[in-house]
Write a sequence for this structure.
């Protein structure tokens, strides 16, 4: 009977993990005290199984419900976790900008801190990023009210028409990028336009996009934000300004 060499097995595992590109994963959060801890802990488990080089970034966008304290505790407990904090609520786009700027690995992935997506579906995107620059996911079954579904459908159709893109779900918060893209494009939006802006600028620069369906789950805790008339009006106003700007770029 041959003895099993644990050290050899561990070396083999580390070699296999090392073949996967390094990855930064970040979660934009605003008042997600009930959701952020289970999300981060699951992310640590999932990422530990696919790569030996990862970081997790919690972007706390001016939370007032104790999210900041939970985030600090998680960072103290896990050396792979760090916290970026906005002293006041700057908006969803600003939170994403902070996440992208703070990401130091070869790939960068984000999903919202509300737990409506399953981080365990991330490994399925990794083979796709070898052939494409962006993996933009779409919700297989959007678990929100009918008004938000209609708004989301109409927004996606309009954005795709204006920028000549073919993306099924512009604002789906489950996307994987090659981080080098963000050295080449300048993002300006601090609000709801952020996803449309990134995809439009990347498409204009010639970066390639592929898509994959992911499951969407009802929010368990906290309050949904981003659907106010003021937010929607601002996004539409900025959208047409963005189109003019991008169309005038070389």
């Amino acid at each position: 009977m041959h003895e099993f060499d644990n050290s050899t097995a561990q070396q083999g595992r580390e070699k296999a993990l090392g073949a996967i590109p390094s990855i930064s994963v970040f979660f934009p959060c605003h008042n997600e005290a009930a959701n952020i801890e289970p999300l981060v802990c699951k992310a640590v488990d999932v990422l530990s199984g696919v790569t030996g080089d990862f970081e997790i970034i919690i972007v706390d966008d001016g939370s007032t419900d104790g999210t900041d304290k939970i985030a600090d505790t998680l960072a103290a407990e896990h050396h792979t976790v760090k916290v970026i904090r906005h002293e006041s609520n700057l908006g969803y786009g600003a939170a994403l900008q902070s996440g992208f700027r703070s990401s130091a690995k070869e790939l960068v992935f984000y999903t919202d801190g509300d737990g409506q997506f399953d981080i365990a579906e991330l490994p399925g995107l990794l083979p796709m990023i070898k052939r494409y620059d962006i993996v933009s996911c779409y919700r297989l079954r959007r678990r929100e009210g009918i008004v938000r579904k209609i708004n989301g459908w109409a927004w996606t159709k309009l954005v795709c028409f204006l920028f000549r893109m073919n993306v099924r779900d512009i604002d789906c918060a489950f996307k994987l990028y090659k981080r080098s893209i963000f050295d080449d494009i300048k993002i300006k939006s601090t609000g709801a336009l952020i996803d449309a802006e990134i995809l439009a600028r990347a498409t204009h620069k010639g970066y390639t996009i592929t898509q994959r369906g992911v499951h969407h789950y009802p929010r368990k805790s906290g309050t949904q934000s981003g659907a106010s008339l003021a937010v929607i009006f601002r996004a539409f106003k900025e959208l047409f300004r963005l189109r003019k700007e991008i169309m005038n770029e070389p």
